[in-house]
Specification:
The chain is of the alpha+beta class. The protein has one domain: Roll (Thiol Ester Dehydrase, Chain A). It is 30% helix and 39% strand. It contains three helices and six strands, in the order E-H-H-E-E-E-E-E-H. Strands 1, 2, 3, 4, 5 and 6 form a six-stranded antiparallel β-sheet that branches. The protein starts with a strand and ends with a helix. 18% of the residues are buried.
Length: 137
């Protein structure tokens, strides 16, 4: 659904000279934020309307290490499963198209303190699909 190019910064690496595992989660989170921005929305904007998107589960499989200066694409697909939003995310190194990490992030949405079925995200998914179909020739 969405793809974001990023570059590894030196300070994101550990003593082994590879990206520290926690940074992959940051890359994925940044991608989710940028995805919302691409739809004209933001987590802070949703929060201002009483919606809280709360991560309930993170599962990341680390496949290959990124190193300082590596350019990569952080890819995202989103779907709903009941009340949960599921973000399937993949980090792919640009130079050789190797998959470096695969993540599944589950999010629940609370509106004014109550768990919801995240209808607001149905609207965003529809907006994305309409945007995408208008770009297809």
């Amino acid at each position: 659904m969405f793809e974001l190019e990023m570059k590894v910064r030196d300070y994101e690496c550990d003593i082994q000279g590879i990206v520290n595992n926690s940074n992959y989660q940051r890359y994925m989170e940044h991608t989710r934020h940028e995805f919302l921005h691409s739809l004209g929305e933001s987590f802070s904007g949703l929060r201002g309307n009483g919606f809280e998107a709360v991560v309930s589960c993170v599962n990341i499989q680390y496949k290959k290490s990124l190193r300082p200066g590596d350019v990569f694409h952080s890819c995202l697909n989103m779907k709903k499963e009941g009340p949960k939003l599921i973000f399937d995310q993949t980090i792919i190194r640009s130079t050789d198209h190797v998959t470096c990490a695969i993540g599944r992030i589950e999010v629940v949405v609370v509106h004014n303190g109550k768990l919801t079925r995240a209808a607001i995200y149905d609207e965003l998914i529809n907006k994305w699909e309409n945007q995408s179909s208008s770009h297809v020739k």
